[in-house]
Design goal:
This protein has no helices and 15 strands. By secondary structure, the protein is mainly β. Strands 2-3-4-7 form a four-stranded antiparallel sheet, with no helix packed on it. Strands 8-9-10-11 form a four-stranded antiparallel sheet, with no helix packed on it.
């Protein structure tokens, strides 16, 4: 017998307990959940709880327990745009070894690096990779997935460029540089080609 638990959402909208087309989820260093809330153009941080305070569902889909609404808060984005406190359709999200939140801000063609702020804090992000749509080695075209390697590099599913990039994270005002791991020959069905890769993972 297995069981699942709701950890965020369950309501559609823009309020603190709601989500709209969430695209990805990861876990912060403190155990809280980080959710890419795509259509709300934000990334939410949602508290983890013990089993006594969550929705539990059996494999038959029957609810075993109820919980209150999960109240989350915004740690990145919150409005539609290209500023450091805005996003356009965020997709993949992960956490680096220092606890920073790394986000594929898809339609801004960039990877954002954001502080894991406390509730009530001010959003603090900058463009770590990309920022301009294009096919150049340091440019992206609607990145979806992002992962962090042991040495702190970013591996990015550069979706509409049909390739996987490995990038050094930059500093505020100076995005990092990239090179192509797979997909340098453009879209296709070959062993070293892709068609719109959507996700990456590091083992």
């Amino acid at each position: 017998m297995w069981q699942c638990a709701k950890v965020a959402g369950g309501f559609a909208g823009r309020t603190a307990h709601a989500l709209s087309s969430p695209a990805d989820v990861t876990v912060a260093k403190d155990g809280d959940y980080i959710v890419s809330d795509r259509r709300n153009n934000r990334v939410q941080k949602c508290p983890h709880t013990d089993k006594g305070d969550i929705d539990l569902f059996t494999k038959e889909g029957k609810r075993k327990a109820s919980r209150r609404r999960v109240i989350c808060y915004t740690i990145a984005g919150g409005s539609y745009g290209s500023g450091n406190k805005q996003m356009k359709s965020p997709r993949g999200v992960t956490v680096d070894k220092d606890g920073y939140i790394v986000i594929a801000d898809s339609k801004n063609h960039r990877i954002l690096k954001c502080k894991d702020i406390k509730k009530g804090g001010s959003v603090d992000c900058y463009t770590a990779v990309g920022g301009k749509k294009g096919t150049g080695k340091d440019q992206l075209n609607e990145p979806w997935g992002v992962a962090v390697t042991a040495d702190g590099s970013y591996v990015v599913a550069d979706s509409k460029n049909h390739r996987i990039q490995k990038c050094s994270p930059g500093t505020p005002g100076k995005p990092g540089t990239c090179f192509t791991l797979i997909g340098a020959k453009g879209k296709g069905k070959g062993d070293d080609q892709f068609y719109r890769p959507l996700a990456v993972a590091i083992r």
